[in-house]
Each structure stands twice: as C-alpha cells, then as structure tokens.
Amino acid sequence: MSNRTEFDADVAIIGYGPGGVVAANILGRLGVKTIAIERFQDIYSRARAVTVNDWTMRIFQNLGLAEKMKDIMDVTHSLRWVDYEGRELTSISFPPGEFGHATSYAIYQPEMERVLREGVKRYDSVRVKFGHEMTGLDQDPDGVTIQAKNLETGTIDSIRVRYVLGCDGGSSLTREKLGIKLIGDTLPVRWVVIDCRVKRWWPNRHKLTFWSDKKRPVVDIALSMGNHRWEFPLNPGESDADFQTHEQLWKLLNSLGVTEHEVKIHKHAFYNHHVRHAERWREGRIFLCGDAAHLMPPWAGSGMQSSIRDTQNISLKLADVLAGRVPQSILDTYEVERAPDVERYTQISVSLGMIIKRELGDEQINAMIEAERASGDLPAVLRPPHYLRGWLQKGNGCKEAVGKLLPQPRMANCKGQYGLLDDALGSGITLLGANIDPVNRLSADQKAAWESLEARFVTLRSVDQHVQSDTDLIDIDGQLITWLEKHGVDVVAVRQDKIIMAASGNLNLPTLA
User: Are 134 and 148 within 8 A, CB to CB?
Assistant: First the structure.
C-alpha cells in the first residue's frame, strides 16, 4: 500500500508500440496527464503488421493524422488465392469503404509508428520515459505506484498514477506481475518472415496473394513505400538454422519466381502463430490491451488493429471518468465490449488460415466462399466492429443499429463547407436526427440526462431542405439518411468512438451500475 497521495499523472502507459502510442494520442488530445514507459528509444525496425482498414484510418482521422498516414500508405487493390501452378482459386476486390476512407491500406509499420509518435509531441500533457522498464506495480484503492528502472543508470523511479494501461505485448511483464494467465494454444509450425525492398516490378505484385498449398502455404503481400513481404512456414525437419543466410532465403523466394532482380532482402525473422487470450483483461486499476490481452494468427490482419481499438475504447472511457462525466463503473464495459470483437476476428483469422493452408477440401472452401458472396455482406475480414453488449441501450425498444459503427459519408455544414462527418461532429457524444431535430424525440428527463454528458444535438438534412440551425448538417449524397432508414431509426446517439449507443425506440441514456 502506497502512502503517497500526490499523483505524477492520471494514466501510465506501459509499452509504446502501436496500441500504446494511440492511447497517448487520444489521452493527450483530451488533456489527460499521461506518462508512457518504453524500454527502447528507437522504433522497432522490422515491419510486423501489414494493413489497416477504414475504421482504423477513421481513428487516425479523429487524431488529426489521417492525411499524414495516407502519404505513407497504399490503398490495397485486391486479395487472391492461387496455387503453385498459378491457378487463381478465388479473389476478392475491395469495395469502396463506408467509413470515409478506402476499405484497406497496405502499410509499413515503422513509418506508421513514426507518424503516431510525432503526433504525441503535440501534447504537453504527455511525457514519454524512453529507456525505462517497469519493474514493479503496487496497487491500492486510490491508484497504482509503478517502479520504473532507468536502463542506462540503473536508478529506480517511483511513479504514482490513477490508472495503468498494459500495452507491453505478448510477453507482457504487466500481465506477469498481475498473475494473469494466458489461455489457449501456440501452434507448433514455425514461420519465417522475409521483408524486402522492391527493385523492379513483377506481374501482379500489387495484389495481396495467398499461395494456397498444404505443404508450403505462403503470404505474399505488398507493403507501402516500396516494401514487400513473404511469410513461409517451415516444413517438418526444417528449423531456423536452415534459413539464416540470404542464400538460404533466396531458395524460398525463387520457388515463387522472385529473384534478386526484383527485390533486395532487407530483414527476416521467425515466429509462431498463437490463438491465446488473457483469462481477464483487468485487475483493479490496471488494464491489459492488445497482445498483452490477446494473440491471434495474422491471416485477417487484425492483431495490431484490435490493439488500437482496445486502447481507443479504454482511453476514451478513462478520460470521461477522470473528467467526472461518468461513474467508474463504465470501466467494467471495456472487456465486455472488446473481448467478443477480438474473438470474432480471431475466428475469422483461423478460418482464413484453414483455407490458405488447404486444411479443408476444395469443395468445402468453394462452398464457404460462395455462401459469403451470396450473403450480400462485405467479406468477413472487412466487416467493421459490432458491439453486442456494453455501454449500449439494448433490450426492449432498441434497434439493430445499436452497437454498430456509424457510417461516415461526406457532409456539408450550414455554410456549404464540405468535409467528412466526424470532422463536423467533433468529439463527445452526439444525438443525430435524420430530417428531425433529435430533441423532439426526447422527454425532458432524457434530454437532461444526455446534456449531463455534454452531448450535442445535430439535425441531418436532405439536400432539398433548408437548414434551420447553425448545427445542421446536409447529407450530400443521402447515404447516411438512407442507412438510418434501412435500420428503421431516425435518431441515434453516437459515442466518441462512433459506435451507436442508443436509437429511436429507446433513447434513454444507457445506465451503469
């Protein structure tokens, strides 16, 4: 138990990878005093994640970083499965996104992290302690005292905060200190990742390709900024020692028709796939995020993106708790909302792996693909988050829109200035009405409840109507009004993360025990 009553910061972030640095941006933007603790000064130089979807780009947009991100990313063209005879088994073209950005982008992770780190420098409320390692956590009813070792001098700093985010990866020391177990499996097959610099274009280099084969399935993916990656499984009898030199690695690349004329080998590494999760994501005032809480295979490109959604979710809630807008019990909804979403993407990833590795027969694979196409929905790997429980007004009178991510089309404000919806709405909770003032759907008590959270009330108007308020927005292409009509609602309450938390039929503020 600590006898310190003063706090060095409100939130400490342990680990400054993608999830941690997104948390720092969000907390900094909201003025929350934050300390991040990170062992390494430099960004990890090897690319790990390979893609972000439009809903992740939307998070970057809300941080004011989307345009800088687009400068270092490439729009993903399509996804295909081929065999070693060059036959295309199936393919998916990526449709236009409904969240204001392209559906999928190829990234080069070190550069993406650089943009995020530069973004944090905008905020005086965030301090980053590079070259420090968390060595101890002492939690009490009022806060957490962290012991942070300076790896250069060996001195120990004592840091007192109200909450902690453990963003320190799959081998999380935070999780270990809390005594929280990882549940699940580490798959036995070893993989080698080969990152290359492109020297000369080769046919269909721009298509994300899965070489489907029972013995040697391969991930073949164009990264941004002239980089390319292949991921090969090691076969029985092979080990890391068999692929240490470039000469050994070229044998793998040559099997796909790629030579030293097309690429230069940059880096390579070995890893195993995991399907594992922490038995719980929270211990009092300490929260596990990203790989510290869950590990999934890479097939769906959702590991890093899930980490970013984790830290967005808990950071926004912590900011509201610290500001006194909501009770501390909202923090109980973090794992409730995020764990099912992570499990869904984990299972999508596992299913994709079964197709890629040809663990299913061709007839089964074709039936799965055709069933998905016939559904009329986006491919599962491109479907956005959808929360079923949590800080939502579910139950009697709720609509199916609740828990979904609100689309983000182009809008115009009352002065005729164009932009994306989120930029017009800003931060905070918004009640949005389709050709109706949302206040007209509320009782006096409901209005007062929403106003206690500093909610805004905005009317979305069709292009053939006059505006009636300075806060009115015009749905230029009619996309959002049509979407709301399709879901049978004319008013929705939208959270900061753009998840719909209530809808006409039941516009009560979701209660928290």
Answer: yes
What Å distances lie between residue 180 and 172, 279, 343, 381, CA to CA?
A: 10, 6, 18, 30
pTM of the model: 0.94
Structural domains in the chain? 9-73+106-182+276-362 (3.50.50.60), 185-274 (3.30.9.10), 410-503 (no CATH)
Helix (H) or strand (E) holding 33: none
| 41: its two tokens | 């000064």
> For 221-259, what is each residue's pLDDT tens digit?
999 999 999 999 999 999 999 999 999 999 999 999 999
Laid out side by side, the sheet with 51-53 consists of 51-53, 104-106, 74-75
Query: Hey, what's the torsion of the CAs at 476, 482, 488, 491, to 10 degrees?
Result: -10
Confirm if 386 and 341 have CB atoms less than 8 A apart: yes
Task: Collect all residues with Cβ–Cβ distance below 8 Å to 285 and sequence separation of at least 6.
Answer: 139, 143, 144, 162, 163, 164
Q: What percent of the chain has pLDDT over 70?
A: 95
Q: Distance between CA 195 and CA 222 in Å, rounded?
A: 10
Distance (Å, rounded) from C-alpha 67 to C-alpha 82? 34
Q: If we measure between CA atoms, which residue out of 57, 174, 167 comes closest to residue 107?
A: 57
Does residue 167 contact residue 241 with C-beta atoms inside 8 Å? no
CA dihedral (164, 168, 170, 176) positive or negative: negative
Distance CA 404, CA 99 (A): 12
Instruction: Look at the block and give the residue holding tokens 């970013």.
Output: 308
Neighbour count for residue 236 (Cβ, 10 Å): 7
Which of helix, strand or coil describes residue 457?
strand
